[in-house]
Structures are given as C-alpha cells and as structure tokens.
Amino acid sequence: MSSESYQYEYFNVSFPKQYVAHVEINRPDKLNAFIEIMWLNLSKLIRRMSYDPEVRCIILTGAGDRAFTAGLDVQAASQGLLSGNSPDIDVARKANDIRRHILEFQDCITALEKCEKPIITLLHGISYGLALDICLATDIRLSTTSTRLSIKEIDIGLAADIGTLSRLPKAVSNMSWVKTACLTGKVFDSNEALSIGLVSGVYGSKTEGWTAALELAGTIAEKSPVAAVATKELLNWSRDHSVDDGLKYTAVLNAAMVQTRDVKNALLSGLQKRKPTFEKL
C-alpha cells in the first residue's frame, strides 16, 4: 500500500505492516496543536481509511517527542470563532452559526469513532484538550511515562464541547474523578490515567509505546476483517444501549455476518493447525 495516495496537510500517513496504517499528526513546531484545516483533514483521511480494503487497523500518534497534541491552537481560534468580534450580528444568528461550527468540529472527531476499522491511539508528551476528545473517540488508548494529560478547556473559559464531556463518563467508572478533572483542568500523568481505566497500557518511552502499538495493530490486522468490523460496531452500540437492545442488535447483525467465508476458513485452519488468512473487506 502506498502512502502517496494519502496526501493530507499536517498529517503523515504510512503503512508499517500489512493492513496497518499509521496516521501521524504533523505540526511538531506548534506541539501538534490543531487549526481548522487539521481537524477537517483528519476526518477526511479517517473516513477514507474506513472503506479502504488495504486497512484493517490504524495507529494514531503525534510527530516528535514533545506532544501528541497540545489541543486547539488557541491563538488561531482567538482570531476566528472565539474572537468575539462581529457585534452587529443578531445574537440568535451568531449563536446558530457557532452551533453549526461546533457540530462540524464534533462530526470530524466522531469520524474516528464511526470508522469501521479499530484505531489505537498512542498518547505521548503533552496531551491536552483536544487530545482527550480524539483519543476518547478511538478504540484502544496507550500512553507513555512522559505523557501529561489535561482537560484544559475550563482554563480558557469553556466547557469542553468536542466530545470529552460526553465520552469520558462512559470510558471510566469514577464520576468523582471525571468531574474533578473536568472542573479543575488539572494535569495528570499516565499512571493516574491507567488507574482509572482511561488507558490500557503505559510504556517507558514513545519508542516502546510504538512497538507495543504496532504489535497490537498487527495482531488485530491478522483477524477476520468482517469479525473486527462487527465487533467494533457491536461494542460501541452496546455501550450506548441496554443489554437487551445490544443482544437484539447483535442477533440482527450477525444473522448476516456469520455467513462470511471467514468462519469456515478459521474453523478449518484450527483443525488443520495452520494460521488462517482472510480476504480483504
């Protein structure tokens, strides 16, 4: 698979292993802080990978060692949506314009959650604000001992509005911790993130974390892509619905999915004591 077909400004795309895509946020001189074109491009490339038969798992990192992302580029935002200019515009019309902008931003990050392919985020260095919005929309979160995290929006006078306040309470079980982190903007480390279940692994360096992420992605990429897509879909659905609803949806989805040739292939491979391989999705 050639990375040349994935040319998006502020992102590096590579394919370090068969069926594994690596998406690197690439604005290291600004601590990978996001400007508008970045979240628009992230959405475009992730939506494209969602349907790419050459992609079965995605790893998301930031360029350089200093930051995964410092979040939203506040200086750029202060000259745009957060500027407070245009006093002559009717309040209701201005509010409607801001609402549309927020929904578009939310949709771009939600694209990670809706992506058919599992996404592994490796948090490292500074991981503030939008870093939490992004990683919470992905499937597996890994971190390093150097990572520093913060739900920073409250420090610039905002309630986080791109996904953290909606997803974080479902990602961890300690609501007291969630409210403390969101209301104070405190900086916390990977050990604390691990203790409350925000991440599932902590590694001594970005290099070690990358090695672990690549091994994990490779394992996922070897599985039936039909099974992986269905598993992600059912887990996300069941998280947001009752057990009974989850069971019913599973029955409906698997009525189609279990008819795949992958099931027969996997069973025969087990009997023949060989490693199964699966067709592209």
Could you characterize the architecture of this molecule?
Keywords: Fatty acid metabolism, Isomerase, Lipid metabolism, Virulence. The protein folds into two domains: 3-221, 2-enoyl-CoA Hydratase, Chain A, domain 1 (Alpha-Beta Complex); 225-271, Lyase 2-enoyl-coa Hydratase, Chain  A, domain 2, CATH 1.10.12.10. It is built from eleven helices and ten strands. It has helices at residues 36-50, 74-78, 91-114, 130-136, 164-171, 175-184, 190-195, 206-221, 225-239, 243-257, 261-271, and strands at 11-17, 20-25, 57-62, 67-69, 119-122, 126-128, 140-144, 148-150, 188-189, 201-203. The strands form two sheets. The protein has a six-stranded mixed β-sheet with strand order 1-2-3-5-7-10, with helices on both faces. A four-stranded mixed β-sheet has the order 4-6-8-9. α1 runs parallel beside α3 (91-114) and α4 (130-136) crosses α5 (164-171). The model has no long low-confidence stretch (mean pLDDT 93).
